Amino acid sequence: ISKVGIFTSGGDAPGMNACIRAAVRTALHAGKSVIGIYHGYQGMIDADFQEMNSRSVSNIIQLGGTILKTARCDAFRTPEGRKQAYDNLKMAGIDGLIAIGGDGTFTGAEVLSREHNIPTVCIPGTIDNDLYGSDFTLGYDTATNTVIEAIDKIRDTAASHDRLFFVEVMGRDSGCIALNAGIAGGAEAILLPEKSTAIANLCNQLESAAKSKKSSTIVIVAEGEENGGAYNVAKEVKSRFDFYDTKVTILGHLQRGGSPSSFDRVLASRLGFAAIRHLLAGETRVMVGLRGNEIKTTPLEEVLNKKVFKLSEDMLEMMDVLSI
Ligand code: F6P
């Protein structure tokens, strides 16, 4: 491999820039050229490329978002789109790829690499923490901290007014942010995509909270849970149990931004560094991830096919015990 192409794709996540920096500098240190591919797979199809040097990644370790931009790209789902992308990579002399993103990004990388035989190593970057093969994904720690900060602020006003708040957090299929931020923020209840919660049970819980003279109540609702999000849950609860003055806050995309935490910066640097080392050592169609405190590779096929359940049983049990 002499020229490495690097790109980010799908939802951005804090730590992507720190990861780009590490990968670019590790490749340059090994005497390789690096090309930044802008706007993910769309940029591959449009040949939106730019050569990178070590100054291209100066002063970005602390920045949220991704300097390489990102996009979701339908054209890449077709063989014609991928052929166009590969022709552009070939024309630019790119003979190895580093992809940073989530499962959609990895699906594209797996197919492109297999169809056109281009060595590819993937890095888990998504706030959802929903990938098999890595205990943590880039951006998850920062996003969880952002949510806790928001819950703390909501708690101040909720307690002052004796109110019930439903706070919706991201996680289409994953309750990692909801469970961890809920526990760290002392939430009274947490609704998760992985676990069903009957509204009647939630109402019972809220009723006992009211009887035990709680001055505020916060329910964390993961966006992908079965009752259809915080507004619906609030409406359902209100129709059965109208004791509290009720408010809804949707945290939305603010969870995706912000300066990465120290944990995410170090993880990003380790993953970027390891990804280049594995690519140059001849590995392909693998994801680098953190397992225990070690960086390990997992075949992309396994990452994409194995189901993840990252919610610890003790935490699920503790959630109910600690909220009385
Ligand atoms: O994949 C991360 C994620 O933040 C999900 O939790 C959320 O549902 C989705 O992205 C939102 O994506 P978009 O930015 O396309 O609205």
- The overall strand count is 11
Multimeric state: single chain
Large-scale geometry? elongated
Order of strands across the biggest sheet? 3-2-1-4-5-10-11
Question: Roughly how many Å is the radius of gyration?
Answer: 22 Å
User: Low-confidence parts lasting 5 or more residues at pLDDT below 50?
Assistant: none
Percent in strands = 15-25%
Could you tell me the mean pLDDT?
Answer: 96
Main location: cytoplasm
Binding site for substrate: 126-128, 163, 170-172, 223, 247, 253-256
Pfam family, one: PFK
EC number: 2.7.1.11
Fold and architecture overview:
The chain is built from eleven helices and eleven strands. The strands form two sheets. It has a seven-stranded mixed beta sheet with strand order 3-2-1-4-5-10-11, sandwiched between helices. A four-stranded parallel beta sheet has the order 7-8-6-9, sandwiched between helices. Bound molecules: 6-O-phosphono-beta-D-fructofuranose (F6P). The site of 6-O-phosphono-beta-D-fructofuranose has 10 residues, from loops. One of its GO terms (molecular function) is metal ion binding. It catalyses: beta-D-fructose 6-phosphate + ATP = beta-D-fructose 1,6-bisphosphate + ADP + H(+).
